[in-house]
Automatic annotation (TrEMBL):
It comes from Azospirillum doebereinerae. Residues 20-133 form the Hemerythrin-like domain. This is Hemerythrin-like domain-containing protein. One of its GO terms (molecular function) is metal ion binding. NCBIfam families: bact_hemeryth, hemeryth_dom. The keyword Iron applies. Belongs to the hemerythrin family. SUPFAM superfamilies: Hemerythrin-like (SSF47188). Keywords: Iron, Metal-binding, Oxygen transport, Transport. Pfam families: Hemerythrin.
Amino acid sequence: MHSDGVDYGALVWSDDLVLGIEEIDTQHQEWIALVQAYERAVRDGGSAEEVRRALAAAVAYTESHFADEQRVMGEAGYPFLDDHIEQHQLAWERVHAFDGKGGEEDLRENLADFLPQWLMLHINTADRQFARWLRGDDETPCAAAAVEGRVFGNIPV
Ligand SMILES: [Fe+2]
């Protein structure tokens, strides 16, 4: 379990995660599948090579997904894009802190804990805030949503 004791739920795709933006929803499904594969490789005691390969695939997809999502937001003129990019960057830095090329198993296990939880939280808060804004029904005070999206232990993402 997580050091902060907060559980944002198992990493499972469901209709609850649908934002109504087709390109992003499709990518979120693929992203979740890749992170699940990584999580499974760690949990099921996959070989170091299997774990490394699954992590590399998840990390590569994370990078291209962040870029695509930021492009969609930029094209839409999303006013909170800078804040969203910052959230992506903080997660990205944390992922790379674990993505050492050495075989540091405990770090990979730690990441297998962090990444699925961060992903569920991020989709359900920051990404959903964008979807609401895009639909024009963002009644949620953005500051409140942003603060909610940043709660992850003491990690400001
Ligand atoms: Fe995002």
